[in-house]
Amino acid sequence: MIQDRLTKIEEIQHSVKLRKIYPSLCRPLDSKIWAGIRINTSVSVETLRRALTQLQKTLDEKLSQTVDVTLDPNTANPELILSEDGKKVRHGNIKQYHPNHNKRFDKYMIVLGNKGFSTGRFYFEVQVKGKTQWSLGVARESINRKGALNLCPESGNWTLWQSNEKEYKACESSPVSLSLNVKLQKVGVFVDYEDGLVSFYDVNSKSHIYSFTGQSFTENLYPFLSPWSNGGGINSAPLIISPVNYNE
């Protein structure tokens, strides 16, 4: 339930305050409550407090911020296969013929949503079940689509990355390893444009994974999905834009 998420936010807020007041208590948080939470010492406690307070305010409004994401075939790398309804994407072994216009990613296995957002808040969920590699999040409209691309905010994308089946990272300029106790099955992505916030959630365990805070957005932001290579079949499962379960 959403109330469960709010309770967990209150617990992490309290823990952050204790860490500031009593450094001797700096030990890992209860992994059953907030697996993989990372305290970035370069970010002030006040910034973290504001971010967590914003999460608390918006989680109970999540359903009203849910957006219906459909993937844009005109942005998809030629080796990606999209479902007819635009809700699933997987890697195929054969490059398909598509017009090579400016919107299309030509090197990396990336596709964007067909609608960008330049104000307010939005939330969507992606099923990652059965995959060993993927990356997802949001990207600005001017992201480089031709040739090399770094996964980091400086390159216009705010993403999580899974590799080697159970290795997870937040794609900062220096990637941040995330110690998660369970393999992710479904990831929620929440964006507050004006507040410069991009947050990721483990939908199944109802817990926060990571947040990019203090960002400055000046362009349209688009949902960003990359199923990566199918790895000879071991990573052939699709990424799926999932309807939000109102009972979760």
TrEMBL record:
| Keyword Ligase among record annotations | yes
**From which domain of life does this come?**
Eukaryota
Domain B30.2/SPRY positions: 49-246
Indicate whether Ligase appears among the record's keywords. Answer: yes
Q: Which CDD domains does this chain map to?
A: SPRY_PRY_C-I_1
Report TM segments.
none
| Keywords, comma-separated and alphabetical | Ligase
- Any one GO MF annotation of this record: ligase activity
Which InterPro entries does the record cross-reference, listed alphabetically? B30.2/SPRY, B30.2/SPRY_sf, Butyrophylin_SPRY, ConA-like_dom_sf, PRY, SPRY_dom, TRIM/RBCC
The record's annotation in Pfam families points to:
PRY, SPRY
Q: Could you tell me which PANTHER family the record lists for this protein?
A: E3 UBIQUITIN-PROTEIN LIGASE TRIM
What is this protein's name?
E3 ubiquitin-ligase TRIM39-like protein
In its UniProt entry, the species of origin is given as: Labeo rohita (Indian major carp)
**Taxonomically, what lineage is the organism?**
Eukaryota, Metazoa, Chordata, Craniata, Vertebrata
